[in-house]
Amino acid sequence: MAVLESRWSTRRREKGRRLEQLGITGSSKVVDAWCIDDVLATLIQPGDRVSIEGDNQKQADFLAGALAQADPERLHDLHLLISSVSLPVHLDIFERGVASRLDLAFAGPQSLRLAQLVEDKVVTIGAIHTYVELYARMFVDLPPTVALLCAEGADEDGNLYTGANTEDTPTIAEATAFHDGIVIVQVNKIVDTLPRVDIPGDWVDVVVVSPKPYKLEPLFTRDPGKIGRVEILKAMLAIRGVYERHEIVSLNHGIGLDTAAIELILPTYGEELNLRGRIARNWVLNPHPTLIPAIESGWVESVHCFGGEPGMERYVAARPDVFFTGRDGSLRSNRVLAQLAGQYAIDMFIGSSLQIDGDGNSSTVTAGRLAGFGGAPNMGHDPHGRRHGSAAWLDLASGEGANRRGRKLVVQLVETFKAGGTPTFVDRLDAVDVGEQAGMPLPPVMIYGDDVSHVVTEEGVAYLYKADSIEERREAIAAVAGATPIGLRHDPQVTERLRRDGVVALPEDLGVDVRRADRSLLAAKSVGDLQAWSGGLYDPPARFRNF
């Protein structure tokens, strides 16, 4: 019997061996920051699979920095799982020879450097995942041997308080702890009593107080002062041509000035159209400051968040009817649950992309830039597992009898040309060549064209779900692609037919007066205005205090 038990508990025995070697025997789990190098060198072994908490916003930066300083003679060939490769130190770990393989979901801030390291064969990419996909694999074929996480605070028993930025921490901790991995957490402070327990101490093995608070990025803050006429025109077209037409009640907005413009004209343009209460009530969204005027105007019923947003803490705590908060007043965000809500519970995902081809395929992976795509593929597709109906979902229904089902709206909201005159619509996605060069089995496409139901540009709206053939879909995309290589091939006579058939709508078809697309429609024209709308509860980060 003892032989059999030993055969089935190798991971548990190895974890116990490492902790015993460190001297962690069940007393206080707190170690001193000055000895973190020895802690990591003892608890992590060559070839281990290590998950470093690198979320969209918060970063286990102290632990990542310590790992980057490890002796590559002693610690090497690590396989890192990092959802968002956001810090230079994440890639320093590879350049110093400590790690060699990477599975990720997003690498926006480090995308250029990552692409070069892949080309130089310093980094081997396992896969570019969606957020949910990467975390799901931690419960299947990629369970972490060690997890490096971060939290607001802990007590002596290792119970954790994550506060407004819970994000991915509980998911990674569970995947690691319950498969006999080692969970190491950097915290901002040790306290006697936590405001609430977000992760129980028996999931945690080691706690270290970081010399400074973990890095937290205001990723979802957009300055209304940077929103111009083109963004406002696209917002007007989206509201009239999509939100109003399909009665969009539940939704997710991608990051950017385009969707921020929509949020800021709901209390003005949307009010003119008498749409309050009819659209945009239930959101899956980080606490965007640009949503404050809509909340204060009574447009928003609920917001469930992927993460937090620096400066929004007091405002969120003061609006518990809208946000999901604990009794302590702080936000309880959860990236995985929010991604699932965004996949199955909302009527529409609307976001942008760097490139779109003539079939509607899109990607944020471009030449020399391995950005990844985060959660967009989770929310930017029609999940065939959905079974509940809504007006918007049923409005796109197709099929007969038992084959009849609704469809989620997946909207690409883009400008035909990006800054510098680079076309958004291209004949061939750079992602195809990048994928081939990196040895990927498939091109890193963000959203496949057959999942896209609408394309909105400053030229108009293409209702791709109405197209009766692949060729007609291509014609509809070309009709709103402007003077790009795709758009220049459109046939004006074909476009007129598509307008008559309702497959394409130009501003005049939607009753949108292009002359009205100016900043007077914005409910807030500066970050200072957002703070005023909040009654002083919003505390903008220093970089946005330009008022």
TrEMBL record:
Pfam families: Mal_decarbox_Al. Transmembrane segments: none annotated. This is Malonate decarboxylase subunit alpha. It comes from Leifsonia poae. GO terms for molecular function: transferase activity.
